[in-house]
Amino acid sequence: MSHIYDYLSTKYHFGDITESSLKEIKLKISNFWNKIGNKWLASGKSKERFLMNNKAWLDENDIQFTVTTFVPQPSTSTAAVTSAGRPRKDFEKSSFKTKKRRVANLVESRSVSELVTAAKIAARSARQRKIANVIRDIGGTPKNIVMSKVSDSINPRQITSDEALAYIDSKSTTHSNKQTRKWETKAGHNVFPSYYSLLKSKQACYPADEHIAITETRSEINFQALLNKIVERLVLAQNEVISSVLPTSSSFTLVTKWGCDGSSGHSTYKQRFENTESTDEFLFVFSLVPLRLFDGSKIIWQNPRPSSTLYCRPIKFIFAKEMNELTLAETNKVLDKISALLPTLINFGASQISVKHDLLLTMTDGKVCNALTETLSSQKCFRSDEDKANIIIRSDEIKLKFKTETGLIVDKAKPGFGSSNDGNTARRFFKNAEVSAQITGLDVEIIKKFDVILKTLSSEFEINLDEFNKFCLETRRHYLSLYSWYNIPATVHKMLIHSTEVIKAALLPIGQLSEEAQEARNKDCRRFREYNTRKCSRVATNRDLLSMLIITSDPLINSLREIPKKKPDKICTEVLKLIVSPRTEESRSESSSYCSTIPQNSGDNTVDYSSDDSDDY
Question: Which of 359, 173, 339, 300 is nearest to 555 (CA)?
Answer without folding.
Answer: 300
